[in-house]
Amino acid sequence: MILPPDMVIFDCDGVLVDSEPLTNVVMRNNLARHGLDISLDRITELFVGGTMMGVMQKSRELGADLPEDWLDAIYAEMFDVLAQEVELIPDIKPVLDALDAAGILYAVGSNGPHRKMEITLTRTGLMDRFRGRIVSREDVATPKPAPDVYLKAARDAGIAVDRCVVVDDSPSGARAGQAAGMITFGYVAQSDRGRMKPVCDRLFTSMKDLPGMLGL
C-alpha cells in the first residue's frame, strides 16, 4: 500500500477507549465468585479480543459454574463500571484530528456489542465522531478473528480493502485485519508484543506515532 490510506478502521476496546483493564477486573472477580479463580494476566491471555459468549464457553470448560443468564449479568456489571470510569486511550484524539485534517475516513470494527460502544464512546466524547460508522460483531455472521467486521466497515464506506489500515490491540483482531486483506498495525502499549508481532505488519506503543505510520 502507498500511504496514506483511504480509510482507517479502529478496534474499540484498548485502541480508542481504555476499557480492558476495567472489564478484565470485572471478569476476574465475577468468575472467582463462580468457582474459577484465575489471574488478570490469564484473563488477558484467554479472553481479550474475543466475545463474551466465548468467555462464557471457555470459562465453563475451565470449571466455572455459570448460570444461563450469565451474559446479561456480566454485561450489566461491565456497563456500570464503564459508564463511570472508562477513559480515552492517551493521544487518540490528535490521531483523529490528523485524519480529519487529511480527509481520511475512519470507522470502528469491534467484537463488542453496540450498547457497550454507545456507553464508552459517549462517555469519552467520541460518539459523534464515529456515529454511523460503527460495526459490531452483532452486525455480521462471524466475529473476529474472522474478517467480517472489517470487511463490512470498508464495504459500507465504499472503500477497497487494499486501501484500508486496521488498528487493533489483540492477536484475534490483528488476524481479522490480515484476513480482510488490510494493512494491520498492532497497538501494543498493553498487549503482548510476542503474540502480536507474527500477525501484524507493524507494531507501535504510542498513539503519537500513528499519524507518521499512516503517512500523515
Please specify the SSE layout and strand pairing.
Blueprint: E1 7-10, H1 20-33, H2 40-47, H3 52-61, H4 70-85, H5 92-102, E2 105-110, H6 114-123, H7 127-130, E3 134-136, H8 148-157, E4 164-168, H9 171-179, E5 183-187, H10 193-196, E6 202-204, H11 210-213
Parallel strand pairs: 1-2, 1-4, 2-3, 4-5, 5-6
Helix pairs in contact: 1-4, 4-6
Structural class given helices, strands, pairing? alpha/beta
**Elements, N to C (H/E):** EHHHHHEHHEHEHEHEH
Instruction: Report the portion of residues in β strands.
Output: 5-15%
Strand order of the largest sheet: 3-2-1-4-5-6
Oligomeric status:
single chain
Q: What is the number of beta strands?
A: 6
Biggest sheet layout: 6 strands, parallel
Radius of gyration: 17 Å
Helical fraction equals 40-55%
Output mean pLDDT. 95
Give the gist of this structure:
By secondary structure, the protein is an alpha/beta fold.
Molecular structure report:
There is one protein chain. With 216 residues, the chain is α/β, with parallel strands linked by helices. The protein has helices spanning 20-33, 40-47, 52-61, 70-85, 92-102, 114-123, 127-130, 148-157, 171-179, 193-196, 210-213; strands at residues 7-10, 105-110, 134-136, 164-168, 183-187, 202-204.
